[in-house]
Amino acid sequence: MRMVDVIEKKRAGQELTDHEIAFIIEGYTNDSIPDYQVSALLMAVYFQGMSARETAVLTQAMVDSGETIDLSSIHGHKVDKHSTGGVGDKISFIIGPLVASVGVPVAKMSGRGLGHTGGTIDKLESISGFNVEVSKEEFVRLVNENKLAVAGQTGNLAPADKKLYALRDVTATVDSIPLIAGSIMSKKIASGADSIVLDVKTGSGAFMKTLEESKKLAQEMVTIGTNLGRNTVAVISDMNQPLGYEIGNANEIREAVDVLRGKHVKDLRDLSLEIGSHMALLAGVFDSYEEAYEKLAANLDNGEAFNVMKTFVAAQGGDVSMVENTDLLPGAPSRIDVTSEASGYVTSIDAHSIGTAAMYLGAGRETKESKIKHGVGISLRKKIGDYVKAGEPLAVLHSETESQEDARRLVADAYSVGAESVPSPTLIYDVIR
């Protein structure tokens, strides 16, 4: 088989066979097919697309290119959750303890972040002593004992996807829905879950900016999961403003703990209950979504979910006092108010700009070598629909220095204030099964 013939076939809009897709992935992984030929194929896929069968076969080939995680020794039905990413998205820290509190095992492999804040691992390391470098045997033991554990992701999950993503990034082929869907799902399937719940973000702070694009991506991923034998549900949720009020590593842990202790941060609570209920239902713990929702809501209010969080932190070496008293979490010495220039109602917030400002403060990484500053971040004081007076703070920057004009200006410009009140954005647009 010649790669040039496969490129020509896809360029003409024809379906590739299972054998041809396996040939591409195997050859690119072992370096027998060069970048320039795979680049040509990616561009052909970008313009011609892929069928549901092709996308599922591509995903499985990427799974098979490296290690897969065997979770069979963990008791119960394992349900994984994945978010396509957003600003202030600390849902995992609420959902993990919440779903575990009703007996669903949550075995989460997570990575570090490259962007406006750290990843799940970076944020958890805001808690002094928290250890993610656990052996497979220890990981399994922790989940079986506590129903919840988080470990650093192995370096060899879906290596073909890592190579393809790097190439897509420099060949203007990132925003191809079959390639995005295959990339996300290959890692989820390699991680060993029995079922998957996807949180697909849409809006200014999301990868997919429009609801139409987000629905297409969600449907594609649900189809892949179904075709590869995983029950998959996608929730399409809003990212036209940051989720909750806190952005940053320790900031987000602090706010997640507040919700676990029963505080009604409406968007965080509502989205956590939505996604958590689907996870519990897929795990077979409840007979209906409504029953799952009612029980999970009760466990946020009665302290059960918070107790699981404390047990989870202690089991992985973390300082539980930082969870019991979140004032002990890392902070920053300087607080800079970002004030409104006019009185009126907040009509929009550019979530992407808020995220970029957080990275400028040091909450995220511009490069893999950048060092995370756990205590810096942004606290929003106003969200869409809120009234603000001229001179009143829209947000507060938590910074290591008093000179943060670039970040301050980004946050100020991210807010639009008008004379007419507007409703808060819809939080959950659709659920695709």
From TrEMBL:
Cofactors, names only: K(+)
Pfam families xrefs: Glycos_trans_3N, Glycos_transf_3, PYNP_C
Gene Ontology biological-process entries: pyrimidine nucleobase metabolic process; pyrimidine nucleoside metabolic process
Keywords: Glycosyltransferase, RNA-binding, Transferase
Enzyme class: transferase
Matches recorded under SMART domains: PYNP_C
InterPro entries: Glycosyl_Trfase_fam3 (IPR000312), Glycosyl_Trfase_fam3_N_dom (IPR017459), Glycosyl_Trfase_fam3_N_dom_sf (IPR036320), Nuc_phospho_transferase (IPR035902), PYNP-like_C_sf (IPR036566), PYNP_C (IPR013102), Pyrmidine_PPas_bac/euk (IPR018090), Pyrmidine_PPase_CS (IPR017872)
Reaction catalysis annotation: uridine + phosphate = alpha-D-ribose 1-phosphate + uracil; thymidine + phosphate = 2-deoxy-alpha-D-ribose 1-phosphate + thymine; 2'-deoxyuridine + phosphate = 2-deoxy-alpha-D-ribose 1-phosphate + uracil
Example of a GO MF term: RNA binding
Purpose: Catalyzes phosphorolysis of the pyrimidine nucleosides uridine, thymidine and 2'-deoxyuridine with the formation of the corresponding pyrimidine base and ribose-1-phosphate.
Protein family membership: Belongs to the thymidine/pyrimidine-nucleoside phosphorylase family.
PANTHER family registered for this protein in UniProt: THYMIDINE PHOSPHORYLASE
NCBIfam families xrefs: PRK05820.1, PRK06078.1, Y_phosphoryl
Protein name: Pyrimidine-nucleoside phosphorylase
The organism of origin for this protein: Alkalicoccus luteus
